[in-house]
Amino acid sequence: MSGRGRLTVVGLGPGDPRLLTGAAAQALEEAQDLVGYEPYVARVPERPGQRRHASDNRVELDRARHALELAASGRRVAVVSGGDPGVFAMAAAVFEAIEAGDPAWRGLDVAVEPGITAMLAAAARVGAPLGGDFCALSLSDNLKPWAVVEARLEAVLRADLVVALYNPISKARPWQLGAAFDLALRIRPADTPVVLARAVTRPDEAIRVLPLGEARNAPADMATVVVLGASGTRLIARGEGLAPIVYTRRSVPAPEAA
Amino acid sequence: MSGRGRLTVVGLGPGDPRLLTGAAAQALEEAQDLVGYEPYVARVPERPGQRRHASDNRVELDRARHALELAASGRRVAVVSGGDPGVFAMAAAVFEAIEAGDPAWRGLDVAVEPGITAMLAAAARVGAPLGGDFCALSLSDNLKPWAVVEARLEAVLRADLVVALYNPISKARPWQLGAAFDLALRIRPADTPVVLARAVTRPDEAIRVLPLGEARNAPADMATVVVLGASGTRLIARGEGLAPIVYTRRSVPAPEAA
To answer: Domain Tetrapyrrole methylase spans what residues (chains A, B) (predicted)?
Structure first.
């Protein structure tokens, strides 16, 4: 035992180190152990004496328990997470492990350092598509039934929210994003702007703005966040090689009398 | 004219300068003119030669036009915004002004630097209440009819999303938050965890975690963000003077057969 341990779940943001907060950078500096999915651990500059525990993507709870054991033994641990750790990332897994695990873990010094989550980074790149009411849904049916995903998506589409879709597609879930676009097309016009933002702020960044009616054929993968516009989402054409601006109006008109 | 102007809408985060990103800090340093709501401008350290244009809260579009005029005249302008500029803040106002304004403004070099928005900062402080699907709604009926606010809130409550409420209350809108809690109580159990997070990370920070049935009597103001838990939102008691953890489980069980 080397004093009281500490576990901080640190948001690395979308990728560009310039989008890290000062507090997150400090938590990474102070950590004796880094725990996380391998590509996220690899983003953190190596530091002499700091131990690195990189793991596969499919073992969030094992990773959380390992980090808690290290902290309980007195180590200062940073669990690294892409984006914001509280948005479809590691923070909830850590708290699930605390709730189900060794009662002593409840007394640990645990903190979360927020980060720029993918939808905020993507939105900033294209304008302000989240400028009105919006929601963030995970399209993955690994942890919830597809019927729940579909019911939630339909509800927020009908309520005219802008929708950010996380985890839109993977090799094991190849058809869900297409099904989501099909559902959206039954509720929103085919010219509704859709943003497909891949690897935002990273060297392989690729951002596409397409009408909903054409979105089904655009490439997407697990590094993509998809933003479906609402009725107030607008495109501003700019001409001369400048990308169009996508933003959502802040105001919503009163419904017309029937 | 002193070369090509530039307008950057900069997210200051929730208040603590340690939650600023490096990119946002750099945009503030490089700006010749700072434009924004007075308390946000006041957060930025003064810099010799940098002009400060602070204004009242109720003039977003005027402020946006002023910033665009400055940029069009060749100045490097930072429009400062609390939290993330794309979430109920200045970015959409700037793009509305561009769409409706001088066509030359479409050719300006305009960028958005994202920031930690209030719900992410509040969530990190208490655990991970946004750990499942969630939405962000503005409770203000200045820019949309109350009937739309209510219909959206009801839709996301029924869809079992965690709900972050921005702009929950003000002197001119004293009853809307209470009405929102009443609506939530018709749909969610009275013991659902609610987080009222005021001035997160600032010296006057005040965070309360209450059951929904008691939330109506808690103090709240325009600096508060309210997070309504969903069915998967849990409280972990910790004892011995430690605040409870609030988090939302990542998984959603399959609905029981009727």
So the answer is: 6-215
Domain range for B215 is 119-248
Nearest to B143 among A17, A117, A250 (CB): A250
Chain B contact set for A99 (CB, 8 A): 234, 236
A254 is a domain residue: no
Chain A residues in contact with B15 (beta carbon < 8 A): none
Structure-block tokens of residue B93: 């106002």
Specify whether A234 is located in the same domain as A150: yes
DSSP, collapsed to helix, strand or coil, labels residue B113 as strand
User: Searching chain A, which residue's CA lies closest to the CA of residue B97?
Assistant: A249
Determine the Cα–Cα distance for residues A21 and A32; give it in Å rounded to an integer: 19
Question: Given an 8 Å threshold on Cβ–Cβ distance, is A136 in contact with B138?
Answer: no
Long-range contacts, stretch A182-187, CB < 8 angstroms, 24+ apart: A182/A216, A183/A150, A183/A153, A183/A154, A183/A157, A184/A153, A184/A157, A184/A212, A184/A228, A185/A212, A185/A213, A187/A154, A187/A157, A187/A158
Helix (H, G, I), strand (E, B) or coil at A191: coil
8 Å CB contact of B155 and A156: yes
Mean pLDDT score across all residues of chain A: 95
Q: How many domains does chain B have?
A: 2
Residue in A60, A61, A135 to test binding to B, most B beta-carbons within 10 Å: A135
CB-CB under 8 Å, A26 with B23: no
End-to-end CA distance of chain B, in Å? 71
A144: DSSP letter = S
Q: Do A144 and B252 count as a contact with CB atoms less than 8 A apart?
A: yes
Q: What is the ipTM of this complex?
A: 0.97
Give the N- to C-terminal CA distance of chain A in Å, as an integer.
71
Smallest Cα distance from A215 to chain B, Å: 22
Tell me the CATH number at A210.
3.30.950.10
Chain centroid offset of residue B212 CA: 21
- Do residues A166 and A197 both lie within one domain? yes
Average pLDDT on B21-38 reads 97
Q: Model confidence over A23-47: pLDDT tens digits? A: 999 999 999 999 999 999 999 999 9
pLDDT per residue over A184-232, tens digit each?
999 999 999 999 999 999 999 999 999 999 999 899 999 999 999 999 9
Nearest 10 degrees: Cα torsion B199, B204, B209, B214? -100
Nearest residue in B to A115, CA atom: B116
**Pair of tokens at residue A254:** 């009163």
Where does chain A show beta strands of DSSP type E? 6-11, 33-37, 51-55, 76-81, 109-113, 127-128, 134-138, 162-166, 193-198, 206-211, 224-228, 233-236, 245-248
Look at chain B and count its residues: 258
Closest alpha carbon to A12 in A99, A70, A66, A89? A89
